[in-house]
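INTERNAL AUDIT FORM
Audit reference: QA-55
Scope: verify that the stored structure record matches its stored sequence.
Auditor: D.O.
Record contents follow.
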Amino acid sequence: MNLSVVGLGKLGLPLACCLAEAGHRVLGIDLEPKLVDKINRGESPLFEPQVQELVQKHHAATLQATTNISQAVTQTDATFILVATPSRADGSFSNEFIEAALRSLGQCLRQNPKSYHLFIISSTVVPGSTLTKFLPILEAESGKKAGRDFGLAYDPDFVALGTVVHDFQNPDLVVLGAIDTRSGDMVEEIHKTICKSQPKISRMGIQDAELAKVCLNAFITVKISFANSIAQICEKIPGTNCDAVTKGIGADRRISPHYFTGGASFGGTCFPRDTVALKKIAADLGLDAPLMAAVEKINKEMDLALADRVQSYLPVGGRVGIIGLSFKDGTSVIAESNGIKLARILLERGVRVTGYDPIAGGAALDYFGPHFQIAQSLDDLMNECDVVAMMVRSPVFRNGIESFRKSKKLVIIDLWRFLDRSKLSPSLVYVPVGVGAPTA
């Protein structure tokens, strides 16, 4: 098929790459000329595993980019809209970028004699947005009728930064809402060309699909928070380890082991905002959302407890080192990452902080400014600090710490129990989070 993707950001460009890899001719549309130019030169404008390789592989043949949104209608059969929906102060999502794109697309459709075009919304939105806002915009701007002249579907992504390409190609599930069978069938067939796995494809009403997108992330935050509560309990009971508990009960299929590791708060681009959004959705309907409020409370407590623990080992005038500033391994995104949150709390308390992350260090420095220092190497950070916190489960960080040899005492706080204590230098004091004191 001839397909287009509006919005070539952290998710849109990987989606365009996956569609091209599946054999479709793909046109990417973005308002940023420099971004478009880079893609057309075979260069990825963002850091995400596999994207550079796929852009380089397909840019001269089946993947092109443009700033001209009208080409989405004139040159393709279906258009994915995957633009940002920023969170407002009240926790709801802003539809301004989706609506602006749809107005332009609708106007292009009005001027085009083609008999049919499919529009696929993939951004996270407040339930009800597609039918009450997006559909009327398309009909008004195009002068055409939904279901007859154009199709409309809501097809949310369930991918994670750092593994976006893999997740698009190997999803566990596909949630799909459409205004009619024709729209839904077209989107389902596109998915089948991308997927290397055999995902569960759930066809449902559009509003159900919109709500499902928010609910999935919110449910994961509940699971993370429960694991963190277990970690807090284990720290008070000598000889216990939260991993033993979560792995043990995670073998029960009603629980599952995924996203069930205690010790660190959740962060990133989706989990925090979708938790707040679900609480806002409930409030707008006159309902309380006490579970979401509890999740937020536990998450904040984990951040403060970690900062307190770090400071408890810090000598007067000492320096804290933070290893890992992105919110997970394999991405440069620092949004609400554990490393950034810890640095923010400590800096507010007047603690001297140095961070290290070869991928996300620049973004962290831009975020904090001159009050925050970035080490040029892992060895430099560990040599100059008194307490070091390992925030990201990176094999590179682990290998660097385990091979480090230092004569003076250095405290290593491990959020994930990721380090092998037996490989650490004797001068390192190892403090795993979520583990009770050793028994006699």
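Auditor finding: record pair retrieved intact. The chain has two domains: 2-204, 207-440.
Action required: none
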